[in-house]
Amino acid sequence: MTAGIVEFALGASRRLSFAPTVARRLVHKAADSQVLLTDAHRVGRDRFLVAASWSPDHLLYYPGLSGAGDPTLLVESMRQSAIYLSHRFYRVPTEDVHFVLSRLSADFAPGGLPYDPGAELPVVMDITCVRTTAKPGRFAMQLSVSLYIHGRWYGRADFRWAVLPQAKYDVLRRRNSPAAADGTAGPSAGPLDDSMGDSFVLRPAAVGRRHDRDVLLAADPRLPANTWRLRLDRTHPVHFDHESDHVPGMVLLEALQQAAYAAYVREFGPLARLAPRVLSSLDTEFHCFGELDRPVDIVVGPMRDAGRARAGFEVSAVQGGRTLADARFVSAAPSWSLLSDREAVSC
């Protein structure tokens, strides 16, 4: 980041308000507690400064063992920004339209995002929006973000989405969904008290979460070792803040991230406790809608081009033989020297 960009962001951000949050209908949330955005100012034709407030006691997004903040907070802040800016500055109506996410990527500063257990974090996003289609009647954009917290740069991200009226969404929804169920047995995408058959839900610590109800992965002995079954709770206050006719994109992203976390823990064993995973980058693409009443498999494997000093995992969500979404997660790879150092100190 150049000094000029940082100075601009900090100076302009003094005009932003960090309380209260914006109206929940403008970010498509049902609960005020799930709204992150607080303000936005237009500073160029397609450039905006957007303020957000990250609570230390969010129901789902909290720090891991490393102490770094949850990177999903940035993704959710981008998702809300795309919707909010569309409604407020680009005259997208608030009724009878659907926002369809297609791709997102992010890179984080070394050490990850900050976390303050005693206060909300004042977040400033320097956002540029670029139209990605010139087709009449079609609204699709890419949102590019530089993230600042307490005046310090913490990362960058890109987010692509399209806005569809109800009629066009219905056509896409029918065309772009998995074929009929493939007959694979497994836990359904139902409430928590549904029978899980021979499956068992992973422990929260194994996927980087604190509570049982936040875990989206179930192990099934009938599945390969690198595959889990998606487990949904449609009463979850964050995953299903409002009704959806498909598996929400943020739920798929959370499941993919949990699988990458579990793979990291499994691969590095004791080292994963000495050097907890801190995400350095992610790249996710969404291909088609997932049905709520059919099994979804979450498949994880190593990233072959991650590099020796990095731990990378490729994860896919598959339903009925079709890929719903896939992602690449990269973090620093722990070294056995950490274990040697720890043992030397304990002696």
Helices and strands, with pairings:
Blueprint: H1 3-13, E1 37-44, E2 47-54, H2 72-89, E3 97-108, E4 121-131, E5 139-149, E6 152-165, H3 166-175, E7 200-201, E8 217-219, E9 227-230, H4 249-268, H5 270-274, E10 279-286, E11 297-302, E12 310-319, E13 322-332, H6 336-346
Q: Helix/strand/pairing class, anyone?
A: alpha+beta
Assembly context of the chains: single chain
- Shape annotation: globular
How would you characterize the largest beta sheet? 13 strands, antiparallel
Enumerate the strands of the largest sheet in spatial order, edge to edge or round the barrel: 1-2-4-5-6-3-10-13-12-11-9-8-7
* Succession of helices and strands: HEEHEEEEHEEEHHEEEEH
Radius of gyration based on Cα positions = 20 Å
In total, the number of strands is 13
Total number of helices: 6
The helix fraction, in percent, is 10-25%
Your description of this structure?
The chain is an alpha+beta fold and 347 residues long. It is 22% helix and 31% strand. The protein is built from six helices and 13 strands. The chain has a 13-stranded antiparallel sheet, sandwiched between helices. Mean pLDDT is 87; it is low at 180-195 and 338-347.
